[in-house]
């Protein structure tokens, strides 16, 4: 069985939804719901990483490992790198990033993405995808698409419609894969990530995984064994989750 750690980054100062991790859903904070997903996984340890004392105070009531990290991190990947340094994990250990606003994540996906990385030794990162189901999703910039090579290594991620069907009158949706924002990383990669310069593609697309690819790191993709539930970006999303978790 693959050994791996789960890190749950939890920021208070979300631009679209401040205090999001502490919002209550059916009697528990969103963060506790996410932690309970992690507890159902096969991870050897679970760490909540935040930059706000309010989150620390709440998280310590249900999680044994809560770390205060810098409030200067630009991305969740930067925060994971700091956690690896604090915990002194080895270069070949695997870390799975579970977003703090994904309380409907199937625990099976956490094991799947870690196992994906373990098996694909050329990869620094592993992640998951699901097929698109609606033609309207192809051109939706909020849905990140991914294309991969014959061995499952990512060729490119984009908010645009990739691949572009130049000669097709009727679009074949089976060619399109939606990227899920769940990653497994090797600790050695995370230790190096802070020293990688930003690239123009990352800035244009607003996709930080393109920085890793720009610097020559491979990302392996697998189709998710289960479809994840929706994440929470806005107060409206929260109301939908109330209903789904209640059922």
Describe this structure in words.
The chain has helices spanning 30-39, 53-59, 76-87, 107-119, 187-193, 200-205, 209-214, 235-246, and strands at 5-10, 24-25, 28-29, 45-50, 66-68, 94-97, 123-131, 145-148, 154-158, 177-186, 218-223. The protein has 247 residues and is α/β, with parallel strands linked by helices. The strands form 3 sheets. It has a 7-stranded mixed β-sheet, with helices on both faces. β4 (45-50), α2 and β5 (66-68) form a beta-alpha-beta unit. α3 (76-87) crosses α5. The radius of gyration is 18 Å and the shape is globular. The model has no long low-confidence stretch (mean pLDDT 92).
**What level of helicity do the residues show?**
25-40%
Q: In terms of quaternary structure, what is this?
A: single chain
The CATH superfamily is known as Spore Coat Polysaccharide Biosynthesis Protein SpsA, Chain A
CATH architecture assignment name: Alpha-Beta Complex
Low-confidence stretches: none
Strand order of the largest sheet: 5-4-1-6-10-7-11
What is the strand tally? 11
Structural class designation: alpha/beta
What is the CATH C level class, in words?
Alpha Beta
- Kindly report how far apart the N and C termini lie: 32 Å
Largest sheet: 7 strands, mixed
Question: CATH fold name, please?
Answer: Spore Coat Polysaccharide Biosynthesis Protein SpsA, Chain A
Task: Return Rg in Å.
Answer: 18 Å
Number of helices: 8
User: Which shape, going by the Cα principal axes?
Assistant: globular
Total number of domains: 1
